[in-house]
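Structural prep section.
Before we set up the soaks we want a predicted structure of the protein with calcium ion in place, mainly to decide which crystallisation condition to try first. Input record follows.
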Amino acid sequence: MRLLVIEDDPDLNRQLATALVDAGYVVDRAFDGEEGHFLGESEPYDAVILDIGLPKMDGISVLEAWRRAGRAMPVLILTARDRWSDKVQGFDAGADDYVAKPFHLEEVLARIRALLRRSAGHAKSELNCGSVDVIQTVRGLGYLLAPPGNAS
Ligand code: CA
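Run finished without errors. Recording the tokens verbatim:
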């Protein structure tokens, strides 16, 4: 599982990355919106932790740009506790979940686990739909090759 952390506060960025690496994830880090946007657009991440208040390009703009470009990875946004408008804007922009600062690292880890579980569930049901299609196609072929009542 490969994650991206975009947070301009160096201490917070390091704490998040350390906790995620300890939990067994591969973690890339970005410290401003432009760098984060570029990484999220060019690399396949299983989930992203995205701060809203970022230099160069704010988190909402980063998220909107990804969603417009069809990037569908789960995104957990980090918001300031007293900025409820951040949460509304974040969800409107395509966020999957949020954590308000200051947060406990355990809560971030739990929410990331939940996001990854959910996105794995989606991937599985898509696969199931695929096999049904294949079975139907094979039956169709079988019928074409040996139509019933054509023995004589
Ligand atoms: Ca920030």
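Observations: DSSP finds five helices and five strands in the chain.
Flagged for discussion at group meeting.
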